[in-house]
Amino acid sequence: MEEDDNPYETLGEVSSMTTHMLAGAAAGIMEHSVMYPVDCVKTRMQCLVPDPKADYRSVVDALNKIVRHEGIKNTVRGFSAMALGAGPAHALYFACYEKVKHILSGGKQGNHYAHFCAGSTATLFHDAIMNPADVVKQRMQMYGSPYHSTWICFRDILRSEGVRAFYRSYTTQLTMNIPFQSIQFITYEVMQDLLNKERNYDPTSHIVAGALAGAVAASVTMPLDVCKTLLNTQEHCARNHLAYINGMASAFRTIYEFCGVAGFFRGLTARVIYQMPSTAISWSVYEFFKYMIHKRKQQSSEDMYIGSSVRIAAATARNSLNLTPIIPMQVSNEQNKIKELNNTPSISR
User: Fold this and answer.
1) Using CA atoms, how far apart are residues 278 and 196, in angstroms rounded to an integer?
2) Which residues contact 137 (CB under 8 A, 6 or more apart)?
3) Rounded-to-integer distance, Cα 169 and Cα 132, Å
4) Please, are residues 40 and 141 in contact by the beta-carbon 8 Å criterion?
5) How far is it, in rounded angstroms, from Cα 35 to Cα 267?
6) What is the pTM of this model?
7) What is the pLDDT of residues 283-327, one digit of tens each?
8) Where are the Solcar repeats (predicted)?
């Protein structure tokens, strides 16, 4: 079955972009909001030399210690930075993916080259918006963070390190996210081919495919995520004689120096636990909003068609009613003439 045969998969040229952007923005905010406390744990567990009070054995242990010693509010520090970035970033992300995929695949399923190229292109736009938000978010998430608000964090970074600080990890982020998103999209599309061949709206298949796609992509790209965290947070104890850690090579060297090969997989469990439900939420919410927006537009089109049909029928009926009184009037005139003839006295001869 081709995607063009399914109106849910292939929307109108004009409405399609708007639909994908609205659905994508909703999916991005929902995904990051629900899993944000786990994201906080992941950031802290990736620290190379954590504070003794923030040396966690597991995700559950981390959440328990943060809530008990710092309060539940600290599990959502930096949330506003994420919310401001996730909406527009995911709007462009999904809209770009759907557009490029449709152009390269010609509306046909099973073209994984198209999925890879579409995912890579979408990542360029997504990370350009999300990278500055990630820098602020992760510095707010660190144990003992000196920043009292998202705005203060943004302002202080800009003043002390300049605009470059917000894109210090951009190349590493792309190096990580292009394979991550490509693997995620390919895995998701393969699972959809297996679980949902007709490509109808099916929440179960969207959740299962999304969760598996997130787990596979997160595991493969884990070392790059640790590098990205180090570049974003600029962990003081890891900088030695360097003013700042710049570039992926420097990040790799620093991580290996402090933790060896195992350091590249710090927080792997937290990352997989975070990515599985968050990717499942992202895809299921995206598909739900895409379906609902399309359904509403389809219903509006049907209502307009029915409304115009009713108006035409009503106009036709009115025209018919305007003609029908002529017939009774003619019959009445003939009856009056007959009565007059009958009442006329006959002339006898």
Assistant:
1) 21
2) 78, 79, 81, 82, 85
3) 9
4) yes
5) 15
6) 0.67
7) 888 888 888 877 777 776 666 656 666 667 666 766 665 544 444
8) 15-103, 110-194, 201-292
